[in-house]
Design a protein that fits this description.
With about 140 residues, the protein is mostly helical. The chain is about 65% helix and about 0% strand.
Length: about 140
């Protein structure tokens, strides 16, 4: 392995706070109360599932698999994501109350999309007359 590649690997290990020698020791930690608490905290901070998996040193599919098989990991992701979303909704709502036009438009476009989205769909029913035009000037 070249010195440049060794340096890249060392940098990667130093950037990942949780470096494990094998997947088993990794899994044991993340299934523990301390591991669950870290996952929950990262979710509350707004990290994506992919970012959380990277912090854990595993792939996104592995994290999804673990969350399917472990209710504590599932809840750490699901419940804390709901807390994070509720915070964002509350902040957006407050901005609407404060008169932030962009926030109001965003809220209405997403919460009352049928009436407020930018693109309106208009259906026309019945027979429409066809008018043929000759000699159209360019």
């Amino acid at each position: 392995m070249s010195d440049k590649n060794k340096q890249k690997n060392n940098d990667k290990d130093e950037n990942n706070a949780f470096f494990f020698k094998n997947l088993r020791s990794c899994k044991d930690f993340w299934f523990s109360d301390d591991g669950i608490a870290l996952i929950a905290g990262w979710t509350r901070e707004g990290h994506t599932v992919e970012a959380i998996a990277n912090k854990m040193g595993i792939s996104k599919p592995t994290l999804y698999k673990w969350s399917k098989n472990n209710i504590d990991i599932f809840n750490a992701l699901k419940k804390n994501l709901q807390v994070c979303n509720e915070r964002v909704i509350s902040t957006l709502y407050q901005k609407c109350l404060d008169g932030d036009v962009t926030a109001i438009k965003y809220w209405l476009a997403n919460r009352a999309a049928k009436d407020w989205r930018d693109k309106q769909e208009i259906a026309v029913e019945g027979d429409l007359p066809v008018i043929l035009v000759d000699n159209v000037k360019k």
